[in-house]
Amino acid sequence: MFEIVQSGGWLMLPIILCSIIALAIIGERLWSLQRKRITPKHLVAQIWHLHAKGQLTPEQIETVRKGSPLGRILAAGLANMKHDREVMKESIEETGRHVVHELERYLNSLGTVAAITPLLGLLGTVIGMIKVFSVITSQGVGNPAVLAGGISEALITTAAGLSVAIPSLMFYRYFRGLIDGLVVFMEQEAIKLVEVIHGERESDAGDSAP
């Protein structure tokens, strides 16, 4: 393995660094974006039951806030539930923007890795071919070992760049789709909470399942 990396030239170093960054981001996002951590089941129904029993105290709201990103959004509305519907919705939307920003953490970096690693591989290809043609110009085609070294460098960097870029792009798209789905679900739960609190909708304990 070391011989392959070495034969790929100095451009293998940034490609390897990109692979480490991508692996770290993918692992962290897979852990952080688990649905059960973001949108616990039946949270709106639990809040409604506490509200109906008169047990929705500031301490309970703070517990909801700390429990999950969805809890943060709902708690922002609950903190303003004595105000009218529009004030409650505005507070939810403001907190929701912060939560979505946190859900998208590191995704731009992952997308950058997916974009630049093929270019690094292409640059390695160009450098390798330049070496090949330089050897041909100075020595002719009588030294196959030198020619093979330049071609090998070109192919190895290209393969390495694509090997990092392809899974990085796949996970980038996967996380984007996952976050979009989570955001839609959280919006639905927040609207449901506003309607239930203001008496415009009956609570259903089964409604909150993702």
Descriptive overview:
By secondary structure, this protein is mostly helical. It has one domain. Helix content is 80%, strand content 0%. The protein has helices at 2-7, 12-32, 35-38, 43-52, 58-67, 69-78, 85-103, 107-139, 144-197. The longest helix has 54 residues, at 144-197.
Question: Which labels suit this protein?
Answer:
single chain; 210 residues; mainly alpha; 9 helices; 0% strand; disordered C terminus
Q: Number of folding domains?
A: 1
Q: Catalogue the unreliable spans.
A: 205-210
Mean pLDDT: 84
Strand content: under 5%
Could you give the count of β-strands? 0
Q: What structural category arises from helix and sheet content?
A: mainly alpha
Number of helices: 9
Q: Please give the largest β-sheet.
A: none
Quaternary form: single chain
Give the N-to-C terminal Cα separation: 45 Å
Radius of gyration from the alpha-carbon trace, in angstroms: 27 Å
The percent range for helix content is: over 70%
Secondary-structure element pattern, one letter each: HHHHHHHHH
Overall shape: it is: rod-shaped
Outline of the structure:
The protein is mainly alpha-helical. It contains 9 helices and no strands.
